[in-house]
UniProtKB/TrEMBL annotation:
It comes from Roseomonas acroporae. The keyword Signal applies. This is Outer membrane protein beta-barrel domain-containing protein. Keywords: Signal. InterPro entries: OMP/PagP_B-barrel. Residues 1-36 form the signal peptide.
């Protein structure tokens, strides 16, 4: 009975940390790669033969929903529901996100990096074996994609991309002393997802265009499957500045050591791109 209660006390905390990992990493990490790829598409689709460099800050107001399954028989599955405010309210310490893309003619190179920490209090059932605690989640990752413009005319452009996305995730779960002595769990994981990407841009006028971006990755090498779709309407303010607004959905399936994560994120987004 003691072992069973201990299991039940720890599981909800672990589930919350897994959910926080999904929310943060998907909101801030994979969004960087998608938007950097999207940013490389200027409103016009005429060939660009010279060297160009693009950076894009953005805001994705996304919510998350899905399920997390665990190897614990008493809590085999837990629903995950959170909004963007839940993530922002739990940010702790230093957070950095940046992305850039260099293009030369038909070829491009995308790079981005992210590091951040999320921290929140943890509740334990009935506060008997453990009197609550604190969870801390840290992640560092980058994405590298090579791109190639496969088709282009005066009104349309099609880009293909391939690369990889490494992840490093560290979790610290500290449980306060109750009937049992205080304890700290430090699970961590790292993996690399291969990624294939495609982007189509259609010019709608002198200053307007529409873009659709999609990628798929994982393939069992790291995640079992990760994919996303992003559509934006773009307005070119000048030769170097573009405004973007649209909608995005991202899905992640990751299974390891009996813990299955299947979550999706969806929501509107806005961005501004600077091209040099």
């Amino acid at each position: 009975m003691l072992a069973t209660e201990r299991e039940n006390a720890i599981v909800p905390a672990q589930i919350r940390l897994i959910a926080a990992s999904c929310v943060v990493a998907l909101h801030l990490l994979t969004g960087t790669a998608a938007f950097a790829e999207e940013a490389a598409s200027t409103t016009g689709t005429a060939p660009q033969n010279g060297l160009s460099f693009t950076v894009t800050p953005y805001l994705w107001i996304a919510g998350i929903s899905g399920t997390v399954s665990t190897p614990f028989s008493r809590v085999p599955e837990r629903s995950v529901e959170a909004n963007f405010g839940d993530t922002l309210s739990n940010l702790s310490g230093f957070a950095f996100m940046g992305s850039a893309e260099m293009r030369y003619g038909r070829f491009g190179l995308l790079a981005d990096v992210l590091t951040l920490t999320v921290e929140s209090d943890v509740s334990t059932p009935r506060d008997r074996l453990f009197l609550g605690g604190k969870g801390r989640f840290s992640t560092t990752s980058g994405t590298v994609l090579g791109t190639w413009r496969a088709w282009e005319d005066g009104s349309n452009a099609l880009d293909l991309g391939a690369g990889f996305r490494p992840w490093s995730v560290n979790t610290r779960l500290s449980l306060n002393e109750g009937l049992l002595a205080a304890r700290t769990l430090k699970p961590s994981a790292s993996w690399i997802d291969p990624v294939l990407a495609l982007r189509y841009t259609r010019r709608l006028g002198t200053s307007w265009s529409a873009s659709v971006y999609g990628d798929v990755g994982g393939f069992g090498a790291g995640s079992d499957l990760t994919w996303q779709l992003l559509g934006t309407i773009n307005y070119q303010v000048s030769d170097s500045i573009s405004l973007r607004a649209g909608y995005r959905h991202m899905q992640l399936e990751h299974r390891k050591q009996g813990t299955d994560v299947d979550v999706g994120l969806s929501g509107p987004l806005v961005a501004v791109s600077f091209r040099f």
